[in-house]
Design goal:
Largest sheet: 6 strands, mixed
Strand order of the largest sheet: 6-3-2-1-14-13
Bound molecules: zinc ion
Length: 334
């Protein structure tokens, strides 16, 4: 492993592990170098640089129809920490340790992964920074570029501008959105959003966001919204900030179940509310696409990242937890 991002899904397990979810090695935004391959691996060889992403079976109907983020075994492959058969590639003193979190458990010097969730990248890229492309960055950017596909000149509001929301913002610029409105309660995040290209910022601790967005859009509302929070009032605001027709992509995760109340009349007149997992991304296509945009200077996701030595993992987790960094990435000495 060369780099490993810290994502809120990791923090959720640290805060409240489910029964049977420990001991576990977390981390699911790894990047590194292939050391060895199994006998049936065809597309990778030792020495290849790879970005690790979520795991998918590659065989079910959804995988074979190029929607691996809806793999029938997504939960089992990614969120239990074990392999599908319940085993793990790791143990300590003979006792199994869960080591297949998102098919990677990448807060570790070495990890056992499948060919499906290791995406080959060029050697000239800053490998230690690429891990978040496999989860957080692809979640935000994919919600815009894969799900919403905004028309050039359209308007978009992004609720919650942490790493996922800022990635969505960078993608909205790529798509050519004219009005890009960042909504958050943290002023420093809003200022960073403005630096990265938000045309308007709304501090929702001080202003009612739906009204503020109408004020910015001649009373109409925006064409698109992205909810990166998942709290019921935020999802509702993101839906009500739309004009008709309009689409809200919700990617914020607050655990399951999480009941949201919406006004049916909001949907009836042509509004769409769509849930998005992993940015509707086929990683083998979308990760290279994001890298190409990065090379062209259109997708500077590296500006969202602060690095920490792997030894300082607790400091990094603390910084991610308190939001003093947007995206913390652990780096390993080579
Ligand atoms: Zn599958
Ligand atoms: Zn994640």
């Amino acid at each position: 492993m060369v780099g490993g991002g810290i994502c809120h899904t990791d923090l959720g397990v640290i805060a409240a592990p489910a029964e049977g979810q420990t001991p576990i090695v977390l981390g699911h935004e790894g990047s590194g170098v292939v050391r060895e391959i199994g006998s049936e691996v065809g597309g990778l060889k030792p020495g290849d640089h790879v970005v690790l992403t979520y795991s998918s079976c590659g065989r079910c109907d959804n995988c074979t129809h190029s929607i691996p983020h809806h793999c029938r075994d997504f939960m089992g492959l990614n969120l239990t920490g074990a392999r599908l058969d319940g085993t793990s590639p790791l143990c300590k003193d003979g006792t199994p340790v869960l080591g297949a979190w998102f098919g990677q458990s990448s807060w570790a010097h070495h990890s056992v992964v499948t060919e499906q969730n290791a995406i080959k990248v060029d050697h000239d890229l800053p490998l230690e920074l690429l891990g978040p492309l496999g989860c957080g960055i692809q979640t935000g950017a994919g919600a815009v570029l894969n799900t919403l596909k905004p028309r050039p000149g359209s308007s978009i509001a992004i609720f919650g501008v942490g790493s996922v929301g800022l990635a969505a913002l960078l993608a909205a610029r790529v798509a050519g959105c004219e009005k890009i409105i960042a909504v958050d309660i943290q002023q420093s995040r809003l200022e960073q959003a403005a630096e990265l290209g938000a045309t308007h910022i709304v501090n929702s601790a001080e202003q009612e966001p739906v009204e503020a967005i109408r004020g910015i859009t001649d009373g109409r509302g925006v064409h698109y919204t992205v909810d990166c929070i998942g709290l019921p009032p935020v999802v509702r605001s993101a839906l009500e900030s739309l004009q008709t027709p309009g689409t809200c992509a919700t990617v914020g995760f607050q655990g399951i179940p999480n009941e949201v109340t919406i006004d049916h009349g909001q949907l009836l007149f042509g509004k769409t509310l769509i849930g998005v997992i992993e940015g509707d991304s086929v990683p083998s296509d979308f990760i290279p696409q994001m890298i190409e945009l990065y090379r062209q200077g259109q997708f500077p996701f590296d500006k969202l990242i602060d690095t920490f030595d792997f030894e300082d993992i607790n400091k990094a987790i603390d910084a991610a937890h308190h939001g003093t960094v947007v995206k913390a990435v652990l780096t390993f000495r080579r």
